[in-house]
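Bench notes, bay 3.
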Amino acid sequence: QQKAILPPDVLDYFSGDWVGKGKFTTGKEIESDFSFVPDLANQCILVRQKERSPNTFEFIALWSMDSISGDLVMLLTSNHESGARVFRSRGWQEGKVVFQSDSELRARFALERFTFQRESATAFHSLYEMSFDNGKTWRAGDSQVFTKNP
């Protein structure tokens, strides 16, 4: 049986505040803030992401463990009346944590995928993608590089 405690490498790496810059696929600039706060004796991380003005998208998510499969799970809700979504990840694989939509609770408009790729101890690259054909092809929404606040 799996323990429902987040892996220390996920907790240690992400915990804290991060500032990001990047681009939408349209070429338009984007800046965001991320905050990762461990809670409940390291059984979860509260994640907040907020785009800086003039952009307005933001989400709050909870990362925790599926005690049966051992998957990392993200329960996410965002503004713009997007509703709640569930994502699953196998955890760190080749320097990346990839969360993909779970079929049970997903966005009405597409499957979604978030990739967090470790660049260094204090920087990661994030990629948000959508699939409108049930995962056959993926289209990038935005890409940013985040740097950890000291």
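Next record in the batch:
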Amino acid sequence: MDGNIKAALDIGTYNINVVIANDAASKNIIGYGESPSIGFKKGMVSDIEACAKSIRAAVEQAEKMAGVRISSAYVGFSGSEIISTNIISTLELNQPNKEISSSDIQLIKDSCGTKVHTEEFLIIHLIPRDYAVNGCWGIDDPTGMVGSNMELEAHLVRARVAAIRNLYKALQRAEIKPMELLFTPLVIAEQLLEQAEKEIGTMVVDIGGSTTGLCWYHRGKPWLTTSLPIGSEHITSDMAIGLRAPMSVVAEIKSNFDLAEIAASAEEIEITGLSDHQLKRVSGQLVKKIIEARLSEIIDLIQTSIINYGQGVTPTELVLVGGGSKLKGLPEFFSQTIDIPVRVADINGTAAQLLINYGVQKHAKKYQKDEKLLKKFKSTFRSVINRFKN
């Protein structure tokens, strides 16, 4: 695979999407593929072989369009049992005025990981929130600074080990090596939100099929990242049971239903496409009640997450994304219930495109940092050589 070729694969509840780009900016998409998410349920791999075939089908479709073969990709998932925590770790540098190196930074990151290490969960993301040198916080990158000790506040996102191992096995059978495994809601939040929104404390709510991902930014960096075990398919299932109609029929009703327009009067909705070909009428208020009951459960879980992790702080705004956010009247219902400003955002493309952007930007930052260190090393080396010459 050409060094300029980048690929991303996003595994969702209903579909697996693959995009291939051929430039460093990751904007020139040359291939796209999509296949149903068979073998993937409730945010986890339920059948390794079936999941691998679904991945392979999407990959081959994208490869055919792009005219290239790919062997690796940034892989995004929105699985269940995602937890996060914020850790502060300290590193004594053992010298009064030691210059902080990249190895020192890696060492303090490793110590953050050690503090939360368990056999059940694996670290997916470790994101520095803030550094301190000799007790002075507010440092973005302490590389090259001098001090006797360094502190790091980091945001760690973890997933259940068994689920990640099964995902890796499916990718291996599909002949795709993950360049990096990414929690899609976090990537969406990183790419979607403006820096000012991250600073004031905005939470992205990614309503998927079987799960709802949360990523809450506070003081410019992720503060809470988690996954709730409820998504839009639970609303569809509730409607199928309550209206006694097939999932495909109620899914169509849901897509056209507007929570904000159903009045208190006995407005009726026609249900067609039933197996007995009969026309059925149901109360619009009944449909509204079924939908709002499940939405209220999602909101309760969001509020519980805010209380448990917010340390007395609440988000200043909720930004709804994902397939479930397309329900008409949803932001109005959320804002009335949760008493926080709410808006729906369009991610302007597929999640797989955002995964490529995230991965390329992260790689570019590391490359620039390595280049900076290399130049500094060369400068130091030249000064030593010149000293010997003199």
